[in-house]
Amino acid sequence: MTSIRRRRRSAVCVVSLVFASITVIGGNERLGRTARADESAGGIRDCNRNGIADDVEVADGSAADCNTNDIPDECEICSTAMTASNNPRDYCSPHPGGSCDCQACAAAVCGVDPFCCDAEWDDICAQSAAVSPECPCGVGPFEPQTDCDDDGDLDECQNLSPWRGSALVFDGRGAYVTAGTDEALRMDAGFTLEAWIQPSGPGSDSTQGGIIANREGEYELARFADGTIRFALANGVPGWAWASSRVVAPRLAWTHIALVYDSSRRNVRVLADGEEAFALTGNVGGAIHDVEPTFNEFRIGGRQRVEQFFDGQIDEVRIWNLPRPSADIAADRNRWLRGDEPGLVGYWRLNEGRGQTAFDRADGHHGAVVGAPWKSSQRCILLGDLDSDGDVSAADVGELTRCILGPGQSSLVPPCRPDASDAADLQRDGDVDLADLRILLNRVVAPTD
Questions:
Q1: Which of 114, 184, 227, 263 has the most C-beta neighbours closer than 10 Å?
Q2: What's the longest Cα–Cα distance across the chain?
Q3: Do the bridges between strand 176-178 and strand 344-348 make them parallel or antiparallel, or are there none, so unpaired?
Q4: What is the pLDDT of residue 90?
Q5: What domains appear along the chain, each with residue ranges and CATH number?
Q6: b/e map of 135-168 (b: 16 or more CB within 10 Å)?
Q7: What is the rounded distance in angstroms from the CA atom of residue 78 to the CA atom of residue 89?
């Protein structure tokens, strides 16, 4: 009965909003868009409903208008962090979970129908949004803008863009990814294993926690129940036994972990967030052999022979058949790779967001996802910052030029990076081409007074 009463009340709210949206001077409801309720007598627009006309706020500086369109920025900002399908207009369609991704829209709709914010943004909530002047569902005078760093300034005024990806969620009870038994994933005298992790629990084993990634009987990287990062190598010294790096990966925080083995230099290193946090040197050596010849799967989030399941999210798993320099690991940890880098034999971006396959972009060792759901994630990227150093410079121009024209700069190969969320896509059109290069050149070689 509660649901029926709520829906009857919501239906009335929709009707009220409909009438509010078409009660304007001159019958403008037929002019190609639904007229705004706040464009009432006198044509005064007050998008944030604070009793002050928008143009007055913008003119006296009390409201920010960084893109100079005479609309207060706060009315345009609709963070995409809460969207169900990475679409900044999700308030215009039903989606699981309460509220929507636009503060002004959520306040307007939920003010008359709290169910939309408290429980579910269903079809009735979407209908309310479609006729609400605070919800730009293609009928208002402005397009929704993003504010990915939540500082109150529009992304377009800061050359920022929301980067959306995904990761796999491992439940610590039986979820894992298996990438098969190909010999290319068997390591010898040196290798590098990397991953981003966000632990949410201790793992399935009360002491040994959960596996980050491993090939059974050869090499293993794990987070123990006490939070420490530990490894095991089937080499001569130290041999097939767990060794602690003393690095702690905290719960509910993303940490980049890298394990590097270099038999020729007789050392093992563990890096956390690009910094060398542990090194074992001297009494180390020997080629890696196989102490479990009947178990040869490369797995992410779990082991093949025993139960040792990771609890939390894992992303961007990479394995190289060479020991990488620490500086290279630090430089590449925050950016996507192409997949054809020398020595890269396995690269699971885990950015698919759906389905039961984790694709290997390096050598086709695609993984079967077992019991692990996908979870979307978001962060800000600085458009044009291809080398991820925090600014836009001539170095980025050089990298984008090589990206577009190829190593020999002799033939155009658009798009060089197919990811629409990449920092190279300055136009945000899903393509990377010469138009993006022109924008970047103008930004770097700016005219001076």
A1: 263
A2: 87
A3: unpaired
A4: 57
A5: 2-158 (no CATH), 167-379 (2.60.120.200), 383-444 (1.10.1330)
A6: bbbebbbeebbbbbeeeebbbbebbbbbbbbbbb
A7: 9
